[in-house]
Design a protein that fits this description.
The protein has six helices and ten strands; from the N terminus they run ββααββααββαββββα. It is α+β, with helices and mostly antiparallel strands. It has two domains: about 100 residues, no CATH class; about 60 residues, no CATH class. The radius of gyration is 20 Å and the shape is elongated.
Length: about 200
Amino acid sequence: MILQVCIDDRAHRLEVPEALLEQAAAFFAQLDRDMDRGWQLGRTWVEHPDREQRCRIVADKLLTAIEDGNTRLGLLMAGYLLDRLPELESVVLAPDGEIHDHRFNLLGAPSTETPVESETTTPALGLDKLAALARASEEVTTVFKVGRGYRFAVFDHASRAWRDGPLSATATEAAQLRERALEARYRALQRHQDD
């Protein structure tokens, strides 16, 4: 099994052998027993962490293992995540260690890494140039800092939620990507329903 792990602008491809999941079952159960006693998640103490919170805790341990170069522990943590979230495709780890900012991308779920500009995410309203520009500016945020990286967000009309743009190493790179997303949104808002 393969788990893609993103930290800042670095991507790691962890190959977790199926056999490891079986061999590490007792280890995973011990992790769960440890978490059954409660856990500190950021600034909050959680008495009984649920499945997502447990995966955030383990994702934090995965981040530490990767940063420390501990391959064995990294594979064990990746194995736990794949075992507890079988639909997991990739995980984006917050480089500053903020546990609530770790993100799990599941198979079949819309990706939060790259905003998709299509008719399903942007309604074709046939707006004039000024109205389209004003609306696009409201629906594409300015660039903001995330850990050691930079990104922006785009409002997705289909899910009625904000979707994060790709994480960039520099503010300049993020600004260039934002400009492309802003232009795509601007053009989409100008289209007519019958186009």
